[in-house]
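Page 37, top half.
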Amino acid sequence: MFWLEIIAGGGNSFAAETQQPNVLFIAVDDLNDWISCLGGHPDCKTPNIDRLASRGMLFTNAHCAAPACNPSRAALMTGIRPSSSGVYLNSQPWRPVMPDAVTLPQHFRNNGYEAVGSGKIFHGGYNDLGSWDDYMKQTGDPKPDPAVLNDPHSRAGTIIWGVLDVEDSEMSDYKMANYAIDYLGKQHDKPFFLACGIYRPHMPWQVPRKYYDMYPLDKIQLPKVSDDDLDDVPPAGVKMAKPTGDHAKILKTDNWRYSVQAYLASIAFADVQVGRVLDALDASPYAKNTIVVLWGDHGWHLGEKHHWRKFSLWEEATRAPLMMVVPGVTRPDLRCSKSVDFMNIYPTLCELCDLPIGGYLDGVSMVSLLRDPDIIWERPALTTHGRLNHALRDNQYRLIRYRDGSEELYDHKTDPMEWKNLADDPRYAEVKQRLAKSFPDKNALDAPHDTKRSGKQNRKKQGQGKKKQQPANK
C-alpha cells in the first residue's frame, strides 16, 4: 500500500508531505457501548464520536482482549494476548514478562515515524517510556467541594461521582487533548503516530456541572435488568458479578439513577474532548493523510447481570467502541457487524502503513473488512479475565467457559441482553463445539503481581492526584 499526499495548507503556514499516512490513536477509558452511534443507551449524546464514526468504519461487534485496563491495554499495545503473556489483571506489570515485546508506537518509531502521546494509553504506572519520542502523562483533576464529597447521592461504596464547578480547562483530559491539538498545529518532517488518552468516563465520574445538566435526573432511564438474571449463571459467573457488593450498595442507597446520570455526564465530557482533537485535525494540513482510530479499552456494567464495573465476561464488559477512518480505504457511514477483537488493531495499522508485521502477534489484519464489511469473517472475538476464564463472541453467540469448566451460552439473535443461558441445552451442543475450537491452546501462568497494587491495595481510591511514572523496562 503506497501513500503520497501533498497538502497545501489553506490558512496554514506550512505544508505536509509524506509517503506514509499518519496515525491519530484515541483511547477513551471505560467507555462502553452507550455512545449514540452504538445505541447502548437511548439518551446518550456523543455527537463528536458519532461524526468520527460516520467518516469511516464503525465496528459494532468489537471486543476487548481483557475486561480490565492493564491487561486490555498491554495486549492491544503489544499484540500479545493475556493467555500468551500471563498478564491477566491490573496488578501484573506487563514489561517484565514481555521484555522483548515491541509495542505498537515502538514499532512505528523503529520504522521511521515519530511516536508521541498524552494521557492514559498504557495502564497507570506501567507506561513504557521507551516507546515514545515524547509523552505527557495525565495530571490530577479538581476535587468537588465538601458538600458534594459528603453528599450520599455522590457515592455508593467505592463507586464515586459528583458535580464539579470548574471550567473544562482545569480538567486533565482537556490538557491531554491540548497536547494533541498543539502537536497537530506544528510542522513535522516525519510521519507521526499520535496517541491521545482520554481518562473519563473512568471513575470518579466527577465532571463540570454543564455535563450533568445535559441529563436531568428525573429523565434518566435505567438499564434493563432482569431480577432473576443470575439464576441460571454458574457459581463462577455469580462470583464475578458480586451481586451483594456494588449492586446491593447502589440499590440500598437509592443511587442507581444518580450514578447513571454521572456516567452519561462523563461520556459527554469525554466526547467534547474528542471533538476538540478532531477539529484540530480537520484544521491541520494532515487531515487528508491521517488514519484515525478510536477505541475504548473495555465496556462497563451499570447494573446489568447485577454487576458494576468491568471485570466480567458478559457483553457489557467485553464490548467497546472501535472505529477507523482510513483515507483511500474506508468510505463514509460504513458499519461492520462481524465479531472482531482489539488484538487485530496492531497488525491492521501495520498493513495500512506499509510496516512489516514482524515478531509474534496474536491478531490478524482487518484491512479486508475495512474495504468490504460484508466479506465472510468467521474468527470469534476472544476475551480473557483471569487465567482459564474465557469468552468467545462470534456473529451470533457468546460462549463463556470458566476455570472450573462451567459454561454459559447466549444467542444474541434472540437474547441481546444475555438473559437465558443455553449452555445445558443439547440443541446447542454443535454450536458450543464449533466455538470451543477457538479457545486458546496456551494459557500462560500468571505473571508476577506488583505487591503495591495487588489485593486491597490494588483497589484504587477514586480520588485525584498525580500518578507516579514508572521508567521503561527495556
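Page 37, bottom half:
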Amino acid sequence: MKFIETLKNVWKIEELRNRIIVTLGLLLVYRFGAQVVLPGIDASQLENLQSNTESGLLGLLNAFTGGAFANASVFALGIMPYISASIVVQLMGIAIPYLQKLQKEGASGQKKITQITRWLTIAICLVQAPGYLASLPTAFGIPQSAFLLGTGGLFYFSSIVILVTGCIFAMWLGEKITDKGIGNGISLLIMVGIIATLPKAFLQNASSRLEGNNVMLILFELVIWLVIILASIMLVMAVRKIAVQYARRTASGGYEKNVMGSRQFLPLKLNASGVMPIIFAQAIMFVPSLIGGSSFLKDTGAGQWMQTNFADIFGFWYNFVFALLIIVFTYFYTAITVPTNKMADDLKRSGGFIPGIRPGGETSEYLDKIMSQITLPGSIFLALIAVFPAIIVKLMSVQSGWALFFGGTSLLIMVGVAIDTMQQVNSYLLNRHYDGLMKTGKNRKAVA
C-alpha cells in the first residue's frame, strides 16, 4: 500500500509527471528505432546474424544496443560510439592543456567539451559503420540474397549515412532525456537496451531447464540473481564517511575554529570509478586473441593457446586476466577522477578541516591514503562481480545469454542507473513533502 501511495504522490507532482512522460516517450522512440532494419536488407534472412550475437563479446555488445546490433537496425551502433568518445576526451583531458583549461572554465568550457565529444563521436561512427557493414556478409554469415540492392557503393554510402545519423539521433535522445526528462539520458538508453534482452535470455534458459525437469534449479538461479543484485547495490552505494569540522563564522565576519562549528561528513565512495574499469578491461581483452591470430603467431603453439583461451569469455585464463586488469584500472581511473588535492583546497577555502589533520597538503595526503585503502577491497569486489557470470556458467551450466545478467557490466549499469533515477525521483518527493510541511507547520502559520 505504501508503494501505491508513493506512485500516487509521484503522479500528483506535475513537473515530475511531465518529466516521466517525456522520458518514457523518448525511450519508446529509441526502442522503435532498434527494430527498423537498414534499407536494402531483408529482415527475414538475419538468422545467422542473430545466432552469432547470442553469446560472447558480441552478445554483450548486442545487449548494450538493445538487440539493434543483431537486427541490422538503423541504431545498430547504439550509443557506444558516444560513450567511447566521452572516455577518450576524459582521458585526453589529463594530458592536453587546452582540455584542462576548458574543464576549469565552468559551463562555457563544458559546452565546448561537449561539442568536441560530438565531433569525435561522428569520427568513431565513420570508422565503425563501414566495418559493421563489411562484417555482415563475411563474419556474420548473412547471405547475399538478403541484400536486395546488392553490396555496392550505393548501399555502403546510404547505410553509413543512416548508421551515423542513427547514433547521433540516439545521442540527441539521451541529451533530451537528461534536459527534459528524469535521470541520465545516455545511461537510461543503455539500461533500457540491456533490459530489453533480459526476458528472452531468461525464457531461453528457463525452457532448457524445464525440458530437463529442473524447476527448482530455476528458482535457485533467481535467488542467486537477487543476491548478486543486492551485492551490486552495496558496491554502488557503499561510502566511507570522513568527519569534517567547519569553522563557525563570528559576528566580526571571521572564522573561529572550535567545537561549536558545524560537523559534517565527506563521503568517499568505495567504488568511485563505477563500471569504467570493466569497460577498459574488456577493450584490452580483445588484444590477446588478435595477437594469437596474427600472421606471426597463428601457426605457433603460443598463438593457438592465446586464441583458444582468450576467445572464450567464460574460460579461466580470460577471467583471471580480466579480473587483474579490472583491479589495475580501478586504481588508475580512481586516481584521475577523484581529485584529492582539489577536495583539500575546497575544504580549506570553505573553512573546513578534518579533525587532527592540518588543512592543505596534509589533508590531501590523508584523503589519498584513505582512497587507496578503500579502493583495494572495492576493486576486488568489482572484479568478483565482473567474473561471476563465468563462475555461474561453470558451476550451474547456465546459458551464456542469461549468465551475462549475473554480474559484469550489464548488471552494474542496470543497478547504477536505477539507483540514480530513483534518487532523482525521491528528491522531487522530498521537496514536495518539505513544501507541504512548510504550509501546515506552526512557523508558517505564525508568519501568516
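Margin note: Residues 44 and 146 are 8 Å apart (CA to CA).
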